[in-house]
Design a protein that fits this description.
By secondary structure, the protein is mainly alpha-helical. The chain has a domain of 94 residues. The chain is 50% helix and 4% strand. The chain has a two-stranded antiparallel sheet. One of its GO terms (cellular component) is ESCRT I complex. This is Vacuolar protein sorting-associated protein 37A. It is found in: Late endosome membrane. Keywords: Endosome, Protein transport, Transport.
């Protein structure tokens, strides 16, 4: 029996799969490459940062609710870093604590954190409003169910009376 019996005219028939097909093992090459440092620090500072990252050229992102968020402008060059010498920049690159401190003190990141906190507050307020409306919604839902049940009963009564009327009109 073919797996798709609907017979869609725009799709070719699906070929049956082989049941006794063997899977060849592929040798895995051992890599001599080791890293002294992980790709990203794992001690919590980076993971606690907000995640609004622009994915397109347009930095104006529109959410499902129609509201939009504009990412803070990021300059091409940071004046604080331009003043540092090459050895200082190299040290900063090698010492993640100093680099993260510089990163956390950026005004753009501070703005994103403030925006995130505001968004969290508004989401919490909306959730509280939704919870307050839940009893009313449940009462209205029950009313609709009761009316549907009443409608079903009335329809059954109507059909019985129509059947009776039909029987009487035939006699």
């Amino acid at each position: 029996m073919p797996p798709y019996t609907q017979g869609f005219p725009f799709l070719p028939p699906y070929p049956p799969q082989e049941t006794n097909r063997s899977i060849a093992s592929v040798p895995v090459a051992e890599s001599g490459y080791t890293t002294d440092k992980p790709a990203a620090p794992s001690y919590g500072l980076i993971t606690d940062l907000p995640l609004p990252v622009p994915t397109t050229e347009a930095l104006l992102q529109v959410g499902q609710n129609g509201l939009s968020y504009k990412m803070p402008d990021v300059p091409d060059a940071f004046p604080e870093l331009s003043e540092l010498s090459i050895p200082q920049l190299t040290d900063m690159n090698e010492q993640e604590d100093i680099l993260l401190e510089q990163f956390v003190n950026l005004p753009q990141l501070k703005q994103i954190i403030v925006d995130k906190d505001d968004l969290v507050k508004s989401i919490e307020e909306l959730a509280k409003k939704n919870l307050l409306l839940e009893p009313s919604l449940e009462a209205k839902r029950q009313t609709v169910l009761d009316k549907y049940e009443h409608l079903t009963q009335m329809k059954a009564t109507f059909e019985k009376k129509m059947q009776r009327q039909h029987e009487l009109s035939e006699v």
